């Protein structure tokens, strides 16, 4: 998963790299006059390489932060879910039509039973 900002950073680092590669050669020719100026060309390359590395690292860092942020959100959601589950009262299943729950012991009895199967309390 990568964000738009990190994509822009990475793509622009590649574009800057290509431009500076050409720029280094142009600069070397311009500064060198008749002789090619290798020093300024290599200096431009090294400088642009570091800049591209920095841009790419920023993009990578944004990716890491976004991933960490997403993990935190997922973790928070999981904890919330866990909390809501543990707090929820354990609801007994609703009796089927006609079935009844004993008022004395809470046993689930069939509709055709008049007395509780557990404690023999009369159905009310
Ligand atoms: Zn009962």
Helix and strand element order: HHEE
> Roughly what is the average pLDDT, rounded to an integer?
85
Label the structural class.
mainly alpha
Counting DSSP H or I runs of 4 or more residues, the number of helices is 2
CA-based gyration radius: 37 Å
Low-confidence stretches: none
Distance linking N and C termini: 62 Å
User: Strand content of the residues, in percent?
Assistant: under 5%
Helix content bin:
55-70%
Heterogens:
zinc ion
Q: Main sheet, how many strands, which sense, barrel?
A: 2 strands, antiparallel
Give me the count of strands: 2
The count of domains is 2
Shape category: rod-shaped
- Major sheet: arrangement of strands: 1-2
Keywords:
binds zinc ion; two-stranded antiparallel ribbon; mainly alpha; 2 helices; 2 domains; 124 residues
Account of the protein in words:
The chain is mainly alpha-helical and 124 residues long. It folds into 2 domains: 4-87; 92-124. The protein is built from 2 helices and 2 strands, in the order H-H-E-E. The protein has a two-stranded antiparallel sheet with strand order 1-2. It is rod-shaped. The model has no long low-confidence stretch (mean pLDDT 85). Zinc ion binds next to loops. The site of zinc ion (ZN) has 8 residues, from loops.
């Amino acid at each position: 998963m990568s964000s738009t900002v990190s994509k822009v950073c990475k793509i622009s680092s590649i574009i800057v790299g290509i431009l500076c590669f050409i720029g280094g050669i142009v600069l070397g020719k311009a500064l060198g006059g008749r002789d090619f100026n290798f020093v300024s060309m290599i200096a431009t390359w090294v400088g642009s390489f570091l800049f591209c590395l920095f841009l790419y690292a920023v993009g990578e860092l944004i990716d890491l932060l976004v991933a960490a942020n997403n993990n935190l959100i997922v973790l928070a959601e999981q904890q919330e879910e866990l909390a809501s589950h543990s707090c929820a009262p354990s609801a007994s299943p609703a009796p089927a039509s006609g079935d009844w729950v004993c008022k004395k012991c809470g046993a689930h009895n069939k509709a055709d039973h008049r007395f509780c199967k557990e404690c023999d309390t009369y159905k009310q």
